[in-house]
Amino acid sequence: MFGGWAWLKYGNLLCGARDDGMLVRLGKDRDTWALKISGIVPMTSRGRRMNGWVWAASEAYGNDVLRRKLMDAALEFSRSLPGK
């Protein structure tokens, strides 16, 4: 998808990772808390912000506690989506 690994839950993209960072789907209006953390920025594609998606730089996702918090939030959001 973007040159790395991608994980799906219920047929929906949950997150993706490559050497330089991690893409995490938190859901629209559910990413404010994460964007306050150093090393986490809004995900952009072709110059456009992807609402509800964040990009965690390697120093951020290398933190086990933070990575778990991001993944828990992503899993919670994915459970609210219809399966594909």
Structure write-up:
The chain has 84 residues and is α+β, with helices and mostly antiparallel strands. It has a domain at 1-48. Helices cover 29% and strands 39% of the residues. It is built from three helices and five strands. It has helices at residues 32-35, 58-61, 64-79, and strands at 5-9, 12-18, 21-25, 40-45, 48-57. A five-stranded antiparallel β-sheet has the order 1-2-3-5-4. Strand 4 and strand 5 form a beta hairpin. The longest helix is centred in the C-terminal third of the chain and has 16 residues, at 64-79. It is globular. The mean pLDDT is 92.
Compact description:
The chain has 84 residues and is an alpha+beta fold. Helix content is 29%, strand content 39%. The protein contains three helices and five strands.
